[in-house]
Write a structure and sequence with these properties.
single chain; two-stranded antiparallel ribbon; 25 helices
Length: 630
């Protein structure tokens, strides 16, 4: 049996848990990691206690579970921007749930025609799908590795509890120092999850992210602060973060914008050609039509168009303007199909974890904002009208959320379909499991988001005046979307710095093109550098440390240990889930200090203890990488 009740139940439960964990991780660091392999291992560990369990049943569980992680990515990149805009005073459960769930369902349906076009494409290897299939085929041997996942989860959860709960360990170290008349900033988040993220994405991506961060914090910041010394209030950590937040991160905006448009440009032709060829083949192949009778191309396209109705209702609910609603829903459907195809293609090239979803989302926000701006009458309609600016910016975030969720789910679905193809799974059953995972995680994600917001605050936007700003979740992508959307309507975009970012991104694209022509093993993907530019250096530095551990291990052993991947996944899950658990008392007592036993959070002893613990995390991650394959 393949499509069983226990597979549906377990898939839904894992989708909810992994969606919540990745919501916390994404708000903290602006990245999520693929949940397919951990979900597959957990599925084996649980289902092996039952009789007559088939590999395809485990594949369906993993398919539903990974949908939760992808939907969380689409949500945390966009919806917090509505709070930062003041379009929402708190997370609206009905609007938010409808928005992300409809976007996720749209992505699943768009993947139906893309499967025919891309799954067997000769240039696409779907690395994470192949890796997931390898874990599924390993079966019982991999289920024994659940101890790495559990041990790492407990270890990271204890560290998070000591840091954020009891206050017995420092969670970060930050510093600033003068450079002539200017300033430069440094920092290090003492987070097991960030070390693990770096290990999973690998040394190359981690190195490029660090390079982007160093360019902003150690080069651009001193240069800018020397050119404009009047904006420099003091040599302090607060000043360096304020300068980055208000000015220098727009360099990353420009780099991400040109990166997203470049990805669209280079993938549009091969994607369109593949879809056209696959559509002709399916139309004439009756056996293919029979195998896909539940989700035929015609049925999928019909439901895609019908989804435009509830999407339009949600948008009209916010903007109360029929013309803008019609334009918004048409643009959302077109952009969703276009960028979902791009995300699916990129998933085939680099995998879901390295998919430039944030880049195509910022391109969507930018284009839709200018479209709404021009259709509304331009400057005359928005000058000095803050309410109109917020409402229009909110509409562009709604459009971006739909597109982002659809693209994230589409890329993830293609990875799962590839894994299913390798283990002989039925595509329509996988499609149903994706839908179950999307709906289940969509129902619980908004309450999780509201809980985290009430407990920690998001991007400096605090629900209460007495909250600790150092505990706020950065939500970098959402902050980026808010800045760009509102900046278009308020005409407050830092165009000079955005232009610098576009120029830097263009140079990176040109160098990467040269490396591609030389068939170099080293590449320079612009989105990795751009994300590093946009994130605080304190986040990219621990990610680099994790990537360095991965790089040294691969150089010595020629491959990545499955045990180490599971250990890294456990570190992420443990810290994220403990962060959510701690959010419950924090929200109830409306204080992040309710459990703390020490008042002095800046003690050098706490910082030293935090560093020692992170060194232990790195050592244990290295030891897990030495685990021999059974």
């Amino acid at each position: 049996m393949e499509f069983t009740y226990r597979a549906i139940f377990l898939g839904i439960v894992l989708a909810i848990v992994l969606a919540a964990a990745n919501a916390y991780l994404g708000l903290k660091v602006g990245m999520t990691v693929s949940a397919s392999i951990p979900a597959a291992v957990i599925s084996f560990a649980i289902l092996r206690w039952f009789r007559r369990v088939h590999i395809r049943e485990n594949n369906l569980v993993q398919t539903a579970a990974s949908a939760g992680e992808s939907l969380a990515a689409g949500m945390i990149f966009t919806l917090p921007a509505l709070i930062l805009l003041n379009a929402w005073q708190q997370f609206d459960y009905i609007q938010g749930t409808l928005l992300i769930t409809l976007g996720g369902i749209l992505g699943v349906l768009i993947a139906v025609p893309l499967r025919h076009a891309l799954l067997n494409h000769e240039d696409l290897r779907f690395p994470e799908g192949v890796a997931t299939a390898r874990v599924l085929q390993a079966g019982a041997q991999q289920s024994a590795s659940i101890r790495f996942l559990v041990t790492a989860s407990l270890f990271a959860a204890v560290i998070k509890f000591l840091q954020t709960g009891l206050g017995l360990l420092a969670s970060a170290w930050h510093g600033a120092f003068p450079v002539q008349r200017g300033i430069a900033g440094v920092g290090l988040e003492l987070s097991p999850a960030l070390i693990a993220v770096g290990y999973i994405v690998g040394i190359r991506v981690a190195m490029l992210m660090l390079a982007g961060g160093l360019c902003i914090w150690l080069i651009a910041m001193p240069v800018y602060s020397n050119l404009y010394p009047d904006e420099l209030l003091a040599i302090s950590v607060a000043t360096s973060f304020g300068l980055w937040s208000s000015k220098l991160r727009f360099i990353g905006v420009g780099a991400m914008l040109i990166g997203g448009l470049w990805v669209l440009l280079v993938t549009l032709k091969p994607v369109w050609h593949s879809i056209y060829q696959a559509t002709r083949q399916v139309a004439t192949d009756t056996s293919t039509q029979k195998n896909d009778r539940t989700f035929s191309l015609r049925t999928a396209l019909l439901w895609i168009l019908l989804l435009g109705i509830p999407i339009a209702i949600v948008q009209y609910w916010l903007i109360d303007n029929l013309l803008l609603t019609l334009v918004g829903v048409v643009f959302a459907l077109i952009a969703s199909f276009l960028f979902s195809a791009v995300a699916a293609y990129m998933a085939g090239l680099v995998g879901s974890s390295n998919n430039p979803i944030s880049g195509v989302t910022i391109a969507t926000i930018f284009i839709s904002a200018w479209l709404v701006y021009l259709l509304s009458g331009g400057q005359a309609a928005f000058a000095q009208d803050q309410v109109a600016q917020i409402s229009a910016a909110g509409l562009t975030i709604f459009i971006g959320a739909t597109v982002c969720c659809a693209a994230a789910i589409s890329g993830d679905t293609m990875q799962d379909l590839k894994a299913g193809q390798l283990v002989g799974a039925t595509p329509r059953y996988q499609t149903w499991m994706q839908l179950f995972g999307v709906i289940a995680s969509g129902i619980i994600l908004i309450p999780v988001l509201e809980l985290l917001y009430e407990a920690y605050g998001i991007a400096g936007h605090m629900p209460r005046v007495d909250m600790d700003p150092s505990q706020a979740l950065a939500a970098p992508q959402a902050s980026l979307m808010q800045s760009v959307a509102l900046g278009v309507f308020a005409q407050q975009l830092e165009w000079q710095l955005i232009t610098v970012g576009i120029m830097v991104g263009s140079v990176i694209i040109a160098v990467d093109g040269y490396l591609r022509m030389r068939s170099s093993s080293w590449r320079l993907p612009v989105m990795a550098v751009a994300v590093g530019m946009y994130l605080p250096l304190s986040l990219t530095l621990p990610i680099f440390i994790g990537g360095l551990i991965h790089g040294i291990h691969v150089r010595r052993n020629r491959q990545t240990s499955d045990a180490s991947v599971l250990f890294a996944s456990g570190l992420i899950a443990g810290e994220a889930l403990m962060g959510i658990v701690l959010a419950i008392p924090f929200a109830i007592w409306q204080s992040t200090s309710v459990l703390q036993v020490l008042d002095n959070k800046t003690s050098p002893w706490l910082t030293s203890a935090g560093v020692v613990v992170i060194v232990c995390v790195c050592y244990l991650l290295w030891k897990s990488a030495q685990e021999k394959e059974k």
